[in-house]
Amino acid sequence: MAEAREMAVRSREVFNDHDEWVPNLAEFTFEAPGGLRLDGGKAGAGYDWPRLKGFPDAKRTVQKETVSGPLIVQECTLEGTHTGSFDGPAGVIPPTGRRVVVQCVQSGRYEKGLTTDVRLYYDQIDLLTQLGLMPTAAVTS
Questions:
Q1: DSSP three-state, residue 141
Q2: Number of helices (H), then strands (E), in the chain
Q3: Cβ-based neighbours of 91, under 8 Å, separated by 6 or more
Q4: Could you say which DSSP state residue 84 is in?
């Protein structure tokens, strides 16, 4: 369990530091909203780096974490300012200058010093609304 947690912490540090070093990855699978699935040794970086260009100050903070053997589930907050373009669900999104705070859940499997599987869940509508690209919901009393 300690090894899995250490790997998950290092993965978060790499993201938060915007480090180009990718943690030890096996034949890695990464899945995220929008039907995204990336396979192979550089799959995680293939998802993170284009988004980090759009949010160069992005940080992921873990609020809750559950560890069960090699599996770790983290409830997180992702915060950043949209100052660069990034690939969104419908194409390239130019900078809006808006700051976003997005709740997400990430589950990962870490075994024998390798990251083997990561799944990220977040509300795409919430992200696009915070960027000013979706209308806000009407509030009724």
A1: coil
A2: 3, 8
A3: none
A4: S
Q: Are 116 and 102 in contact (CB under 8 A)?
A: no
- For residues 69 and 1, what is the distance between their CA atoms, to the nearest angstrom? 5
The token pair at 126 is 């919430």
- pTM score, two decimals? 0.76
User: Among 1, 19, 124, which residue's Cα sits nearest to residue 10?
Assistant: 19
DSSP string, 44-94: HHHHHHHHHHH-TT-EEEEEEEEEETTEEEEEEEEEEE--S-EEETTEEE-
Residue 21 Ramachandran class (φ > 0 left, ψ -120 to 50 alpha, else beta):
beta
- Residue 42, SS3? coil
pLDDT digits (tens, 9 = 90+) for 26-50: 556 777 777 777 776 655 555 556 6
CATH number attached to the domain at 2-130:
3.10.450.50
CA distances from 110 to 43, 61, 93, 107, 117 (A): 15, 19, 33, 10, 7
- Chain centroid to CA 53: 13
Longest dimension (CA), the chain: 54
